[in-house]
Specification:
The complex is a heterodimer of chains A (316) and B (340). Chain A has 15 helices and 2 strands. In chain B, strands 1-2 form a two-stranded antiparallel ribbon. Classes of the chains: A mainly alpha (316), B mainly alpha (340).
């Protein structure tokens, strides 16, 4: 068990290191250095700059040293909490990223709080009696909702609930402070897109457990069906969905981009997109690195959690 | 857009096609002109107005073949019909009596009204361009770039998967590790970083999709190859002294092909979502040519009123129907291959 966690941790650090190296290398070309110069000095100043002056500018910014040295510096800075400077927003990247990640965290928390009960209930209900009308309709709904892309769900919800009925605000910019009402549409969009997948996984796991020997024994012993499901089946059926739910965090980080941009919610995804369009290289790097760290961590939690929850692996 | 894919069941789906070679030829006849038409654009010269004509009967024929093959699964039939509807629209768009999709006529005309002696079935957008013709033309680029990107991703992913699975050893370690590194990026983040680096264009979308999808495909193919590798016919080929390349292409590839097809249908759906989303975000295909993502992007800024919500709803429903088609097709195919 400890050995497994240790191995996974080493793997995690390696993956993050390689990912950060890739991120650093691809944005380390002469073109991107030039763009940085344009952002700092202005386009005219750079085009008027002679080659020698440009080299001098590079030297003053510390960009002329070999890249591995700068990579080590960059990583060192990040580890001490210095993520660089955002030219678009004119602030330090660190606090900016932290506040945006917190906003996305609120969104993600609401999504999970709503999605987990819905998808688990639906999954268990449909997996309980495979092939029943209830099962079929739940399966169809989950295929249908996951087939509609987030952008379309967002549009339909906005048109119906915000523009048509006027119940909810159409945008979630939160200009006048935090407002729960503005959170509803983004959360609903993400839940509608995501619950089907988890529900299907739960259904598969539940269906597998329901056909196993010990459930048949329990039913044949005359234990009420309700009790068989609640006490015997659920425990084992919910192990697999656990890993799926934790892995949804990775998916959520990519789904959140569209939703945040569409609803103008000030979160991590919107920050990343704005930085990419500007282009604000240091923000892109910081955001991507943060996303990778979150994704890899969630993967490890799901792996370790699975082995911990599954007694067959835990005791072997 | 979950990347987790359960290994699809291994049943030769290709056997259902009575004559795979003919079907593939028809597909090429239908597909190549469309691809040339969208990617080549005006560089086709005099050929441009005629190049899509042979594709129209080919698409209809292909649809008939698919219908007769998938007869037993209603879900697959619905899916195929949806997909082929858009496919047919894509190849016939230049010959349909449509208004030029880029020509401004009268802005903000609601659906089913006439203005300036023109009857607009789906109305016009904020620049006065006909929504109906923009919607129908819009499917061309999504389809072509989506299918091409998925295809390239499959070639790259399968190649790496076969190498990792068959040669194993250090190659496997390195390829699998790099795959894990790429998979640790959330998909949309990876797309944004790659397109930010390369710049937005159709070809760069192909590259980005390849990067994002190939590792997952590689994993599936690697697993299948590890299984197939231990079969007797592979040992026979090794004893004959065939080279590793020959064994991978001739012995392994045909045997891992079936399960990949189901996965490919699902992934076509993901790619279509990705392209529309990226275009909406401003990182994908560029204006002014009609495209669903672009229509959503432009209307989201100008038409946030219930009266004008058709501008958002029409492209959203179109893209949903196409993706629903791909997903239902994949579901039906999986169901059918389980039954065999």
């Amino acid at each position: 068990m400890l050995k497994l966690i240790g191995r996974r941790l080493v793997q995690m650090v390696l993956i993050i290191l390689v990912a950060s190296l890739l991120l650093f290398v691809i944005f380390d070309t002469p073109q991107f250095k030039k763009r940085l110069a344009v952002q700092e000095l202005g386009g005219f100043a750079v085009s008027a700059l002679s080659e020698a002056d440009y080299q001098e500018w590079l030297a003053s910014r510390g960009l002329d040293v070999p890249f591995y040295q700068r990579y080590v510096d960059w990583m060192g800075n990040i580890l001490t909490g210095d993520f660089g400077f955002s030219y678009e927003k004119n602030t330090e990247v660190g606090p900016l990223l932290a506040s945006r990640l917190a906003n996305t965290g609120i969104l993600a928390l609401c999504v999970f709080a709503l999605m987990i009960p819905i998808s688990l209930t639906l999954g268990v209900l449909s997996g309980m009696r495979e092939g029943s009308p209830l099962d079929r309709s739940i399966t169809f709904i989950s295929v249908f909702t996951t087939s509609i892309p987030e952008i379309a769900t967002a549009i339909i919800l906005t048109v119906v609930l915000a523009l048509g009925l006027g119940w909810l605000p159409a945008k979630s910019a939160m200009i006048q402070g935090f407002d729960v009402k503005q959170l509803i549409l983004p959360v609903l969009t993400l839940v509608i897109y995501d619950f089907g997948y988890v529900a299907r996984m739960t259904r598969a796991s539940m269906a597998e457990v329901m056909t196993s020997q010990y459930i048949r024994t329990a039913v044949l012993k005359g234990i009420p069906y309700r009790r068989v499901v609640m006490k015997h089946a659920l425990r084992n059926a919910l192990i697999a969905p656990f890993t799926v739910i934790v892995l949804q965090l990775n998916w959520l980080l990519s789904g959140v981009v569209v939703v945040e941009v569409f609803f103008e919610y000030d979160g991590f995804g919107k920050l990343l997109l704005e930085a990419a369009l500007f282009p604000d290289v240091e923000v892109v790097q910081a955001c991507t690195l943060a996303a990778v760290v979150v994704a890899v961590t969630s993967q490890i939690i799901s792996d370790v959690g699975y082995t911990f929850l599954n007694p067959r692996i835990r005791f072997s | 857009m979950a990347v987790v894919t359960a290994p699809p069941p291994s049943v030769p789906l290709m056997h259902r096609l009575k004559n795979p070679k003919v079907s593939i030829t028809i597909f090429v006849i239908a597909w190549l002109p469309l691809m040339l038409y969208v990617m080549g654009g005006s560089s086709l010269g005099v050929l441009e107005p005629f190049i899509l004509i042979p594709a129209i009967p080919a698409v209809i024929l292909l649809y008939a073949i698919c219908i007769s093959t998938f007869r037993e699964s209603t879900i697959a039939l619905i899916g195929t019909t949806l997909v082929f509807f858009w496919f047919l629209i894509a190849v016939t768009a230049p010959y349909l009596p449509l208004i030029d999709p880029n020509k401004p006529i009268a802005p903000f005309v609601p659906p089913f009204t006439a203005k300036n002696d023109v009857f607009f079935i789906l109305g016009t957008d904020f620049k006065g361009r006909d929504m109906l013709s923009r919607t129908l033309w819009g499917c061309q680029r999504v389809l072509v770039w989506g299918v091409s990107a998925t295809f390239v991703a499959y070639i790259v992913g399968t190649a790496f998967g076969l190498i990792a699975g068959y040669i194993s050893g250090w190659w496997d370690e390195i390829i699998s590790f790099l795959g894990n590194v790429i998979l640790s990026f959330p998909v949309m983040v990876l797309f944004i970083v790659i397109l930010n680096y390369l710049g937005p264009s159709g070809f760069n979308i192909v590259i980005a999709v390849t990067f994002a999808s190939a590792p997952a495909i590689m994993r599936i193919v690697r697993g299948l190859a590890l299984d197939v590798k231990t079969r007797d016919y592979v040992f026979a080929a090794q004893t004959r002294g065939e080279s590793a390349l020959w064994i991978m292409v001739v012995e392994l590839l045909p045997n891992v092909r079936g399960p990949i097809i189901v996965d490919a249908c699902l992934r076509l759906g993901y790619t279509t979502v990705a392209i529309t989303t990226l275009t909406f975000l401003g990182l994908g295909l560029q204006p002014p040519d009609p495209d669903w993502g672009l229509m959503i992007k432009e209307s989201a800024k100008t038409a946030m009123l219930f009266k004008f919500s058709y501008m958002l709803l029409i492209p959203a429903l179109s893209v949903s129907s196409l993706i629903l088609g791909f997903n239902l097709m994949a579901d039906g195919l999986r169901e059918m291959s389980m039954r065999d």
